[in-house]
Amino acid sequence: MQIVKEFNIQDSCSYLENKDADTTYQLVENCSIYELKNYLEHGYRRFGKILFRPMCEGCCECQSIKIDVERYNFSKSKRRVIKKASHIKTHIQRPLLSQEHLDLYEKYHLYMKDKKGWDHKKTTPTHYYNSFVDGSYDFGYEILYFDDDKLIGVDLIDIVDDAISSIYFYYDPDYSSYSLGKLSMYNQILIAKEHNLKWVYLGYYVEECPSLSYKAEYKPYLTLQKRPSLYEKAVWI
To answer: For the whole prediction, is pTM greater than 0.70?
Structure first.
């Protein structure tokens, strides 16, 4: 792997009001599965060719968590979500860029702007490609959700030798009654179980951030302790 550029950005926090954020970034080329696994284990996230994690001094609100797949059990309510959406079909493939992807992405974000007040700027093909297609190498995939032939959801993930890393999911808000966000997570866990993968990395859990606090529902999970360097042993409890 080649680290093309490494830098920090200090800005207002995207998750908590009246807080500042300090995030470290690495722009990389030719990242291998083994190298990505090490980054994930040390609390990094990936978008495109960018690997990043928060490094805010004096604040540990962003907690890296991963689901313990072997010990995860599906309750009756979770099985009902899966059963209700039994007519929805899935297909896994390498990430790609299409007008269908862009239209669905735009529809979802306009919905979230109205529902949750998300900032919105219309994405471009270049921005989408750089975020979700480029840099996927041997580990990047997307799970497509279809109602008949209609694309209603796109779940971006990475797969390494012992884990799935959940990157981003967007969906058609007309299908909100099917709890597609939960369904996508349940399917990731089912895929991990089927292939004997130990973990599903969920990224960051922030208790006071509604967009991230839902991750606490996916128990049992482990939490990364402190912020170890890439050359230190990562301790998860």
So the answer is: yes
